[in-house]
Specification:
The chain is an alpha/beta fold. It contains 24 helices and 13 strands. The chain folds into 2 domains: 302 residues, Orthogonal Bundle (ABC transporter involved in vitamin B12 uptake, BtuC), CATH 1.10.3470; 277 residues, P-loop containing nucleotide triphosphate hydrolases (Rossmann fold, 3-Layer(aba) Sandwich). Helix content is 52%, strand content 10%. The longest helix has 30 residues. The protein is elongated and about 95 Å long. The protein starts with a helix and ends with a helix.
Length: 609
């Protein structure tokens, strides 16, 4: 009976440790989109930190048979706290290693290589952490007054581990269920668009990498306190793959899925292999274990990519709505709008009193862009005046979208300068430009696919008190009433555009025209001073396009400045004055559409046909 009790206590502790580690990786990968293939180094750093903080000086302990730094003999829980701090601080150098976005292939490879190099370093530099032999005889908490080998101690230890895992679960849930968590998921889905809406990618993802590192460090401390040893052989880079397998199986972006995955994969799956009868080749079973884990990942990615417990849909709008129609580009479906003319955009977008003095608010001097020696925009100097809808036209390849991207900061310019309200913003990052009121849309529909339509809209509203790491920690009492008001604003806009029935539908499931409308609504709720629209009417029925154009005109009369790239000349005729013509990357002409039609060079370059 005692053997079964020890076995159950051991499984309990390992389950808590693995669940905590999976929660940490899930908040990085499932929510923030960081492919942290070096995750194991953070857990290992915590294990080593807890060990050397709790152990006596190396020269005097156990005959001095092992060498390591520190040796401070700190009482519990200080070693565990230190482990969490070390795990979090270790994340900071990787911010500079893998660059601005902390995501994508480069970040994944950079973190993976770092895990391999650090393992080699610890293994080869013996004075640091005793090299390949590792650190052993790590004192268990309270071992001077309680026998660590007793069943009662081990169950108590498991109980503490479970309580800490539960606390970590609620901490991470508090963060990810806030407006800040909404922004994290938006960045995960489309970081370029999130950046253009004013989200600070580096700061937010750094926060998640540090938080995940701290939780991973704590899980390492719990583990080393239980097994009393730690060595480089215990934290090869392949161990991270096991945690990723758990996230994929359980469900990325779902905290409960991460816990379920931890129970099924690192605990259940690996434990089950212990019951395989011994074979002639003792290395065969461990090898088959990795093959099976690889197959498990492939099968889930193919047949159930969202995992057993997929990321849940967040229902923000509680208004009673009809079931959403199937997504369709049918013009009749797209003009089923509510009361677009009745929307008070000035109030909804907080435009304040009109200040229509038509001063130059956005301008460029000699703006140019080259890709691999090929110049696509050359010496563009334009002035966009406040309170006007300015159009930009030109043949395909003229550099219109590239110019808009440089104005928004999404693309850096090769030469030239950009000014916003007289301030040189050429070197300003795109998210700071968005925060200053320079907001863009994209040529192709760029919704956040795994966010609902309502989440897409609300995520764009600036200056939300819960849209920061520290604001999210303060909880719903801090940001709840404000978030409710923001949702009500978004509901009014949705109602005006006739898309209320899609409020709680995933934006990625809408038709092309409907996704374009979501992008327009989202950009308006970002409260721009200057709105850069890249073919906003593409895929939108002409009747609805003209109603949207009327609203854009009203917004410009209320003080908003709009620069719109559009191929549909009827839209330019009806709403844009002046219109800038680009051809071969240069400004060809500027004027009203009536004036441009009288210019032979414009007719030849673009208007013919």
């Amino acid at each position: 009976m005692s053997a079964y009790a020890f076995y159950f206590a051991t499984i309990l502790i390992y389950a808590a440790v693995d669940a905590m580690a999976c929660l940490a990786l899930n908040v990085e990968f499932g929510f923030a989109g960081i492919s942290n293939f070096g995750f194991i180094i953070f857990q290992s750093a915590g294990a080593y930190a807890a060990a050397v903080l709790s152990m006596p000086r190396a020269a005097t302990s156990n005959g001095g048979f092992q060498s390591y730094i520190l040796g401070w003999s700190l009482p519990w829980p200080l070693p565990w706290i230190g482990a969490a701090v070390v795990g979090g601080l270790l994340a900071l150098p990787f911010v500079f290693l893998v660059g601005k976005r902390l995501r994508g292939d480069f970040a994944a490879v950079g973190l993976l290589v770092s895990a391999v190099l650090l393992n080699v370093l610890v293994k080869d530099f013996v004075p640091f952490l005793n090299g390949a032999a590792g650190i052993s005889i790590v004192p268990a908490p309270f071992q001077s007054i309680w026998n660590p080998q007793g069943v009662a101690y081990q169950f108590a230890y498991g109980g503490v581990a479970i309580v800490l895992t539960i606390l970590v679960y609620f901490l991470l849930r508090r963060i990810t269920e806030s407006p800040y968590g909404r922004s994290l998921r938006a960045m995960r889905d489309n970081d370029i668009v999130a950046d253009s809406l004013g989200k600070n990618l580096r700061l937010n993802r750094t926060s998640m990498l540090v938080l995940g590192g701290a939780v991973a460090g704590l899980s390492g401390a719990i583990l080393v306190g239980f097994i009393s040893l730690w060595a480089p052989g215990a934290w090869g880079y392949a161990e991270t793959i096991v945690f990723f397998a758990a996230i994929i199986v359980g469900g990325a972006g779902n905290h409960k899925g991460a816990i379920l995955g931890a129970i099924l994969v690192p605990v259940g799956f690996e434990e089950a292999t212990r019951y395989i009868p011994p074979l002639a080749n003792p290395t065969l079973v461990p090898s088959l274990q990795w093959v099976a884990i690889g197959l498990l990942i492939v099968l889930f990615l193919w047949f159930r990519p969202d995992g057993i417990l997929p990321e849940r849909r967040r229902i923000l709008s509680r208004k009673p709505t009809a079931p959403p129609l199937p997504p369709s580009d049918d013009p009749d479906a797209l003009i089923q709008i509510g009361n677009l003319e009745g929307l008070d955009f000035g109030h909804l977008l907080r435009l304040g009193e009109p200040t229509n003095d038509h001063r130059v608010i956005l301008s460029t001097q000699g703006l140019s862009k080259s890709f691999n020696g090929v110049t696509v925009v050359e010496d563009v100097s334009i002035e966009i005046r406040q309170g006007r809808v300015t159009g930009m036209i030109g043949p395909n390849g003229a550099g219109k979208s590239t110019t808009l991207a440089m104005l928004a900061g999404t693309l850096p310019s090769s030469a030239g300068r950009i000014f916003l309200e007289g301030e040189d913003i050429t070197a300003m990052s795109s998210h700071k430009r968005a925060q200053a009121g320079l907001v863009r849309t994209f040529q192709l529909a760029s919704e956040f696919k795994k966010l609902t339509v309502m989440e897409n809209l609300v995520s764009a509203i600036p200056n939300q008190s819960g849209d920061s790491f520290w604001g999210s920690l303060r909880g719903r009492r801090h940001w709840g009433s404000e978030d409710k008001a923001n949702i009500e604003r978004a509901e009014e806009v949705l109602e005006g555009f006739g898309l209320t029935q899609y409020a709680n539908a995933y934006a990625g499931g809408l038709s092309g025209g409907q996704r374009r409308l979501v992008e327009i609504m989202r950009s308006l709720l970002a409260e721009p001073k200057v709105l850069l629209l890249d073919e906003p009417m593409a895929g939108v029925h002409p009747n609805l396009a003209h109603k949207i154009g009327d609203q854009l005109t009203r917004l410009s009369e209320g003080g908003m400045t709009i620069l719109m790239v559009e191929h549909e000349l009827a839209i330019m005729d009806a709403f844009c004055d002046p219109v800038i013509v680009l051809a071969e990357g240069r400004v060809l002409a500027e004027g009203t559409m009536a004036e441009l039609r009288q210019m032979p060079e414009v007719v030849e370059a673009y208007l013919v046909g």
